[in-house]
User: Fold this.
Amino acid sequence: MRKRALFAVLAAAGVLGGFTGPAAYADDGVGDIQITDVSVNGDKDIVVGVTDKTVTVSVTATDPSGIWDADFYLWRGPDGADPYFDATDYVTPNEDTTPADCVASSATTSTCSKTFTFEPDWWVTNADAGTWKVGVHVSANDGSWTNRWAYTTTRLQRLSKLTVDAGPEPVAKGKTLTVTGKLSRANWDTLDYRGYAGQPVKLQFRKASATTYTTVKTVNTSSTGTLTTTVTASEDGYWRWYFTGTSTTPAVKATGDFVDVQ
Assistant:
């Protein structure tokens, strides 16, 4: 049984040692802290399969007195009746109350980091895929602080898989070659992979003597994510499917299937 609980609807209640929630959305602060960079997962999309995925969020900031601590807030919304979804309510126990790991590069500048774990068997569901906002709270040694509610964004995506099979093998030159495959992606509600329907996928070919693929045609996946098309066999080479991705699903390429044309 899935253990997902309802997300908290954030109001003015204090969270993250200084955040008051996006319902009171407004950047604020006291003092001279300057944030120069916020990075999530090394500036890459967060791609989650059906097992836990831990990512690092970091902030680089400067203050004349030096940086004391930082905290982070991953959220999305508004979204209908549940306007604010807060990932920090569902991190590993004590993760959201543990001080950040701050490393000073000078007397005034530090980079502070914390980790967040996205857990499909606990709180992540299909509806959570898409763009998330990243807020940050930084405190300095002299007691000054700053809140930036949406300093940057990140994308949470459902891991995709793509297969290919071209046949018959070998095939006579000028004869019909059938290329099939399937595009699937992680289903966080059922903890398995399901076909991704109605998506345009490129069929690509690479000559045996070449190093790059060329797109031959584009085919839409079926209601179950399957792909099938025919082409005329002309020369030896590799066939593959290539999906360029969506906001909720990353791009993926099938491993090329070699066909001997005789």
